[in-house]
Amino acid sequence: MDPDAQRMLQFQKGDQKAFEELFEKYHRPILNFCFRFLGNSHEAEDIAQDTFIQVYQAAPRYQPLTKFSTWLYTIAKNLCLNRLREGRMEAMAKVNSLMGEEESLLEEQIVSNNPGPDQQAEEKEITEIVQKAIRDLPAAIRLPLILRRYQELSYEEIAQILGCSVTAVKLRLHRAKRLLAQRLAPHIE
User: Fold this and answer.
1) DSSP 60
2) Which domains, and CATH codes, for the chain?
3) What mean pLDDT is reported for the chain?
4) Cα 96 to chain centroid, rounded
5) What is the DSSP letter of 163?
6) Which terminus of the chain has fewer CB atoms gathered within 10 Å of its CB, N or C?
7) Distance (Å, rounded) from C-alpha 152 to C-alpha 155?
8) How far apart are CA 65 and CA 16, in angstroms?
9) Are 47 and 36 in contact (CB under 8 A)?
10) What is the pTM of this model?
């Protein structure tokens, strides 16, 4: 059995420390997921907190039918979608981050090379172009991209979270990559 599901079952029996361990392990990843989905740090923090409140409240009914992380991301995804539907945010969710490793490499390069103002301006422009390209993707293909690239979930986990087949997940990811390539092509030298 999934160790996190075991922790949730321990919490179900009254072990508060088990819940604290789950919170410590997943708070930052859920917060990052919500931020990438919503594009607003305050909204993301609210939704991340609401996610763990729902986990806490759902403890008596919890059954480990899927991996704990899949169940948790499904809760977060649904809360994000509800927030968007409620009209408290723009119609399209904003994604304000470069893709995983590229961002880390860029940060390392900036720190190690002490770039001049021209290079900093160019890097900022590239970052904004990539962010806009991701933000402008339709939600149906943006969400699987976020779950795969940033949260590093498997195709199977993404399919469970989205309620679709693994094939559909792969097709959506392929479409997202193709659209990003098309939109970024004019900016590649």
Assistant:
1) G
2) 3-85 (1.10.1740.10), 100-187 (1.10.10.10)
3) 82
4) 11
5) T
6) C
7) 9
8) 22
9) no
10) 0.64
Query: What's the token pair of residue 21?
Result: 């361990």
How many angstroms separate the CA atoms of 179 and 175, rounded?
Answer: 6
Q: What is the pLDDT of residues 34-47, one digit of tens each?
A: 988 888 889 999 99
> Tokens 């993404």 sit at which residue?
158
d(CA 117, CA 37) in angstroms, rounded, equals 31
CA distances from 137 to 142, 152, 156, 172, 180 (A): 6, 19, 22, 11, 8
Q: Which tokens go with 157?
A: 């986990």
Q: Report CA dihedral (129, 135, 140, 143) to the nearest 10 degrees.
A: 100
Long-range CB contacts (< 8 A, 24+ apart) of 46-54?
A: 46/83, 47/76, 47/79, 47/80, 47/83, 48/76, 50/79, 51/75, 51/76, 51/79, 52/23, 52/27, 54/79
Confidence label for 77 from pLDDT (cuts 50, 70 and 90): very high
- Residue-level pLDDT at 114: 56
Phi (first) and psi of residue 117, to 5 degrees = -60, -35
